[in-house]
Fold this protein.
Amino acid sequence: MSDGTADSTTATGGTPAATDQGGPAAGRGQRIGSLLGSVGGQNLSLIGALVLVLALFGWLNPAYLTWANIKVIGDAVTISGLLALVQTVVIICGALDISVGSQVGVASVVCAMVFTSTGGSALLGIAAALGAGLLAGLLNGAVIVFGRVNPVIATLATLAAYKGVAQLLSKGAAQGYVSNDDVFVFLANGSIAGIPVLLWVLAVVTLAIHLLLKSTDIGRNIYAIGGNDTAARLAGININKYLIAVYGLAGVVAAVAGVLLTARTGFGHPVSGSEGLELKAITAAALGGCLLAGGKGGVGGTLLAITLLGALDNGLTVQGVNPFWQNVAQGALLVVAVVIQKRRAGERAVGLPT
């Protein structure tokens, strides 16, 4: 007995073996703690808020948690989710794109008009929309880089400009009719393995952006630029090239959202359906943990945040709340997200002594 005791203590330098301090229970606790740590406090808060919202509106109206309504939430989240995901990349790079909603409108109109003018070619309509989105995004990047314009001012200007372009192209009215085309019908209402195609598109874009940010040198350079652009430049990173490319990516993803909007509604819409999407995208990215100064963020938090916003919007609609309150809620959530960021960073309040 005495020999066994001596072995168990001396083998660890006089410290009792781990099994004497909780054994498997301690190991499970460590694993759970490690899992929670990998999820992150920000994401845990979002998960908790989402569960609370679902439970509250499900209790107020049993129809809220039906599969039909969940599908409605998923469909609505897809378009805003695409913009929130690519907004995440832009913000991580230390910039901002306020024009994504207007780019959706341009892509939607171009898609429907080319589809109609080519005698019903869905592929040409989609290709034209993607080309228009890429052009709009590259133009944003060029204005910022070569014009040396602040990203907020530049994209605020193109927000108005692209909205005007969409209205000029469409003469201010919905264009085309795509609901009689199999491709658009499949995009809007089709499913694969029981999951709507819209959600598959969101999942593919989410995975692609996640891999880009976390598993490539390009992603690491994007984080480096947003974290410290001076250090990134000294390290040999071509910041101008990256900014233009990131805005080009934003334009392409916005165009994908425009195509899906056209498929869902059956027409190309210059403004309706796309207005206000930029605010939702920025709010979701900020709520999801993106530091608005750049260098921090990820698609997981953004996806949770946009799902939370979609569930909240739908819940308010199901309860018959005035839809204008949705804008109030989004604005309030954005303010809360920024306040939390500033508090965590330890920044002093404006106008108050240090």
